[in-house]
Design goal:
A hairpin with a 2-residue loop joins strand 13 and strand 14. The chain has 438 residues and is an alpha+beta fold. The protein is globular and about 70 Å long. The strands form four sheets. Strands 1, 2, 3, 4, 5, 7, 8, 9 and 11 form a nine-stranded mixed β-sheet that branches. Helices cover 33% and strands 24% of the residues. The longest helix has 27 residues, at 113-139.
């Protein structure tokens, strides 16, 4: 008999490429990888409540998990283990020192045929590894107690509102932030920590060189697993699309931020955490977000002649589609997901989510909720209404990087928040008294 109510199991697999290949995240790179700073991983935490309801969190040291890979993995998990979309959460850390995946940011990488072949094979192998990883975690389910709490760390900087070049002389930082460090602790019957799932809302872009690494989240996971030798540490990325770790660009800084985040997690674990009732509810949906069309053929033709590399590739593709009469997408199926673990709500949203979404959701549901971006599909930046109006990289030009035909519709933020409120209602997440949506 399981007197603790919860069961949990973990698994991990090294996903460091075993050969040199192109790295994800930066268009400025001009050659493939040159070695390994530290291994990168995919990890799984499987959960089962007292009634036998299950959910699995899968995290990965990758820039993104694109739709075709996510759909393929989740379809296989449903076929093999009966896990629905609602029960599977795939989150990528967004490290910029991981490998390129197939059909992800394709326009920005100058890949020749041998490199394309490597990317295709790596992506195929990765899907197999992720499915096997979940199976291993489910096989290792054991009675546990689960705890949750938010901590704090303050090395994120809003990159839209602060000039990186002037940071050393600034006496105050501008722009919205969410400094929360959400932590889930899993402890077995003997009181041993078996899993630590934690997050932060900040780009892993300290490093931009040619060695594989998990950036600062990689260093954090290494530190926590050294401190808790029987634990698997899983990092999930929050609403960090407009947040950078500043200053940056050295291994020493990546290690410093990793240690800072590890200390924040350890502090939470050393203090009293809320024990979660062994009751699990999950919900998932996809909402259609509208897309604006591309510029005129005249503007696109000018871009083909004058634009930089990946803008030119994007313009050529759009122009060919328009001239060939091929219809361009006018909407995108955007994934939303809510888990309720006891009284701990976990909100997961797709894409490169800006921090204002976390702030908005916490105004509605309270500061203790956990908010994840980069979940289940990373198809583009997801700007707030304010950023969409302001434009700039996150609001406008980044859509070209991801290959979308145009910017998001003006109602994007409204539709996403409304969708999350509806989904939260399905699993019983209460709204704050007097919240904007009551």
């Amino acid at each position: 008999m399981n007197e603790l109510g919860w069961k949990a199991g973990t698994a991990r697999v090294v996903i460091t490429p075993n050969q040199s290949m192109w790295m994800a995240g930066y268009a400025a790179r001009d050659h493939p990888s040159e070695g390994t700073l530290h291994d990168i991983y995919a990890k799984a935490l499987a959960l089962e409540d007292a009634s036998g309801n299950r959910a699995v969190l899968v995290t990965a040291d990758l820039a993104s998990i694109p739709k075709h890979l996510s759909d393929h993995v989740r379809d296989r998990l449903e076929a093999s283990y009966g896990l629905s979309r609602a029960q599977v959460l795939l989150n990528s850390s967004h490290t910029h020192t991981g490998p390129v995946l197939q059909n992800a940011l394709s326009d920005i990488y100058p890949l020749d045929e041998p490199q394309l072949s490597l990317v295709e094979q790596y992506t195929t192998d990765l899907a197999d590894q992720m499915v096997a990883l979940v199976g291993e975690a489910l096989e290792k389910l054991e009675p546990v107690r689960i705890y949750a709490q938010n901590g704090v760390a303050r090395f994120q900087v809003n990159r839209r509102n602060n000039d990186e070049a002037l940071l050393a002389t600034q006496t105050e930082l501008n722009g919205p932030n969410d400094y929360a460090v959400p932590v889930i602790k899993v402890v077995n019957e003997a009181g041993v920590v078996k899993a630590i799932a934690f997050g932060y809302a900040c780009h892993p872009t300290v490093l931009s060189f040619y060695q594989w690494s998990g950036d600062y989240p990689g260093f954090t996971q290494i530190a926590l697993e050294e401190q808790y030798p029987e634990a698997t540490a899983l990092f999930f990325q929050g609403a960090g699309a407009d947040q950078n770790p500043l200053p940056r660009r050295t291994v020493a800084l990546a290690r410093q931020y990793g240690q800072t985040l590890a200390a924040a997690v350890e502090r939470v674990m050393d203090e009293e955490m809320r024990e979660l009732e062994p009751k699990l509810s999950t919900a998932y949906t996809e909402i259609d977000l509208s897309l604006n069309g591309p510029p005129s053929q005249e503007v696109l033709s000018k871009m083909v002649e004058e634009a930089p590399f990946y803008h030119k590739k994007w313009a050529e593709r759009m122009l060919n589609n328009l001239r060939g009469g091929e219809p361009l997408p006018t909407s995108y199926p955007y994934p939303l997901q809510v888990w309720q673990l006891g009284d701990q709500a976990v909100f997961s949203l797709g894409g490169e989510l800006v921090v204002e979404y976390a702030i908005q959701l916490k105004r509605i549901f309270g500061p203790n909720i956990f908010v994840l971006g980069y979940s289940n599909d990373v198809m583009a930046y997801i700007p707030s209404a304010r950023i969409l109006q302001e434009g700039g990289y996150e609001g406008a030009s980044s859509q070209m990087v991801y290959g979308l035909p145009g910017t998001w519709g003006a109602d994007t933020e409204t539709r996403i928040i409304h969708g999350m409120v509806q989904l939260a209602g399905e699993v019983g997440v209460p709204q704050l008294q007097g919240s904007p949506n009551q």
